[in-house]
Amino acid sequence: LVSWLGTKKVLKKSILCPRCNKEIQLKPEGSLIMHCTNMHYKQIRGRKWQRKACNYKLSALTGTWFIKAYLDLVKICRIISNFLMINSPRQKLFQTEMQISTSITADWTNFCRELLNQWLTDSSKPLGGPGIIVEIDEAKFGRRKYYKGRLITGHWLFGSVERDSDRLLVVSIPDRTAAILVPIIRRYIASGSIIHSDCWCAYDALSNENYLHRTVNHSRNFV
């Protein structure tokens, strides 16, 4: 398993030793510790030169998402593979098949969801383009205190949809100010797009960007 993860670049197969500047290889027998055994000469107390081994050690898990995991590598890989192949609900299966607790199951499934969400966000193609209409809006999702009155707590979400293809994007945001919304629009919506939005004041800054901005006043029209 360790050798296979190394070939897939999930684990490091080699590093450069920071002490002697020599390359350290991951051993093929499955050890997770890369050990530098290069010999060098070191001067002892300014008089005698002595031949010594470097003895620098580093875990192959360093810099990966396995580094602070309490589970062994086999169980982690089984959780990830089952998460990708088995449809929900799957938490009970993880607990019984791999003998792990409810909290560990929830942590790792949430971690896998966050990683997939980040991958989709980073690799997604921008919406819109010259002459293409993209509709945008923001909303707060939460609950009312004692189920009465206005929303007190909740999370803001920004959404956009490409009208012709129904491609969409939903991003969690801390608030709906122009300082937050405009960089997100600039990142995920291609220049030259026709943007349709409501009359929220934060969208006024789009007039300074490379977009054709059109607004709908919901107090007069419902679209």
UniProtKB/TrEMBL annotation:
Q: Which domain of life is it from?
A: Eukaryota
Pfam families listed in its UniProt record = DDE_Tnp_IS1595
Annotated InterPro entries: IS1016-like_transposase, Tnp_ISXO2-like
Instruction: Identify the residues that the record assigns to the ISXO2-like transposase domain, covering every copy.
Output: 126-223
- The name of this protein is ISXO2-like transposase domain-containing protein
The source organism is: Harpegnathos saltator
